[in-house]
Amino acid sequence: MRRLLGDNDVLAYLVMMTARLIELRRVLRPTGSLYLHCDPTASHYLKVILDAIFGVENFRNEIVWQRSTGKSLSTVRLPNNHDVLLAYSATEAPQWSLDAAFLPYDEQQLDERTASKYRHRDASGRLYRLDSLINPNPDRPNLTYEFLGVTRVWRWTRDRMEQALRDGIVVQSTTGRVPQMKRYLDEQRGRPLGDVWTDIPPVNSRAAERLGYPTQKPVALIERIINLNTRAGDVVLDPFCGCGTTIDAAKKLGRRWIGIDVTTLAVDLIDARLRHTYGEAVRDTYEILGIPRDMGGATALFQRSPFEFERWCVMVLDGQPNEKQVGDRGIDGVIRFPLDAKGSSDRIIVSVKGGATNPGHVRDLIGTVKSERAAMGLFVSMVKPTAGMLAAANHSGSYVHPANGQRYPRVQLVTVRELLDGNRPQMPLTMLPYFLAQRRAADNDDQLGLDDLPHSA
Question: Could you list the residue range(s) of the whole structural domain that residue 388 is in?
Fold first, then answer.
């Protein structure tokens, strides 16, 4: 691969993926399967690597998912509008659901061939076709008899035939004609699922499930994969779980799950997504590992990545972190809270400092709250605030909630230790972030550098 590609980002990606694919193969059960989602840029290289790790005999499918319609912007080639799903099994006997390999018929969108067959409707409006009752084997004396004036080698016994007639399944158009059976469309298994999927749209800017995560996949895509290769109670592992679509789908379908991601933003997003979808009680059904639980963990996170530390602090407050690492004007995140039942909301600006602090930082936050016309501000610090910082915050004034008249400090100081101890600042009931991100807030969220903040949740 190195001789073929040279030293570049593609080779680095393949090296990274190879180490992980080997480990995924190691932990996969004998009946398990692996699906790798990629684009055509590297799919052919990945397939060679997967052949080497899983064995050519365990290759199952190369699925093409049409993720968008073609755009007329390409001048020297056709536009790219599909991704690839490479499917492999651990052995030659993977778990497989035949029922999930068929798509239910949609009467409003039947293909021409199916529509030409299922062209009759009964009194209740059900679509059906007429099918033969004659046995394909002519040498069946026990099934040869006279029925409705016609003698043939029938498909069923006389008793079953007469019962079907009473049930209205057998019809004879005119006397002396060979009877036929009704085959109802809604009783059929469905349309066989192929390896080109064009029926699952991507998560676009107006999709209800959109979270504003750049690589988010539609839930329907992941549900289809899970249904094909797992049963209720099986374990689904997503080692690059991102915004948690696989976890959400696994939870919905009654599978156990494990999700892994490298960023606290993803951990926060998945936790919020599950709580938003299944209620706060769902938090008792899973454990979050790898994020700070004490001051030692918080200090280690700050030393390793100050930016991840900032995002973690915002996460603990149920806010949405700012993705800008520079030029954020001291705005490390935003917390939203509702103003009324119509979906109006306001903002609390969060500023995080993991190192040394001084009263100037608090005054800067007060100025930002005023200039951005936000309701409140929260200053989070690793160290205990000084008397000068407390004095600056105390002089910031108050915020009065317009709906209930509740009064809150305009700017508050909170330490990381207080957050770890479960002590929440004084603020209105907040909304979980990320959801309904396709609806822009009425104010100037984009000017904060925070794309896709939810207007309501």
Answer: 301-448
Do residues 343 and 456 make contact, with C-beta atoms less than 8 angstroms apart?
Answer: yes
Do 444 and 308 share a structural domain?
yes
What letter would DSSP give residue 174?
S
Residue 235 · residue 293 · CB < 8 Å: no
Q: At which of 171, 187, 203 does a domain end?
A: 187
pTM, whole model, 2 decimals?
0.74
In our burial notation (b when 16+ CB lie closer than 10 A, e otherwise), range 400-423 reads ebeeeeeebbbbbbbbbeebeeee
Q: Sign of torsion, CA 203 205 211 212?
A: positive
The long-range contacts involving 367-374, CB below 8 angstroms and separated by at least 24 positions, are 368/329, 368/330, 368/331, 369/396, 369/410, 369/411, 372/331, 372/347, 372/444, 372/447, 372/448, 373/443, 374/334, 374/346, 374/347, 374/348, 374/349
Report how far residue 239's alpha carbon sits from residue 261's, in angstroms, rounded to the nearest whole number. Answer: 7
Q: Residue 450's pLDDT band (boundaries 50, 70, 90)? A: very low
Res. 435 pLDDT band, cuts 50 70 90: low
Residue 383 located in a structural domain: yes
The strand ranges marked E within 39-81 are 59-66
For residues 339 and 404, membership in a common domain is answered with yes
Q: Are residues 324 and 437 in the same domain?
A: yes
Residues in the chain, how many? Answer: 457
What is the distance between the terminal CA atoms of the chain, rounded to a whole angstrom?
47
Angle between helices 295-304 and 306-316 (to 10 degrees): 140
Q: What CA–CA distance (Å, rounded) separates 132 from 150?
A: 14
Are 337 and 439 contained in the same domain? yes
Tokens found for residue 438: 């396709």
* Contact indicator for 79, 73 with CB cutoff of 8 Å: yes
Residue 447 scores a pLDDT above 50? no
Among candidate residues 151, 166, 187, the one where a domain is terminated? 187
Q: What is the mean pLDDT of residues 130-155?
A: 95
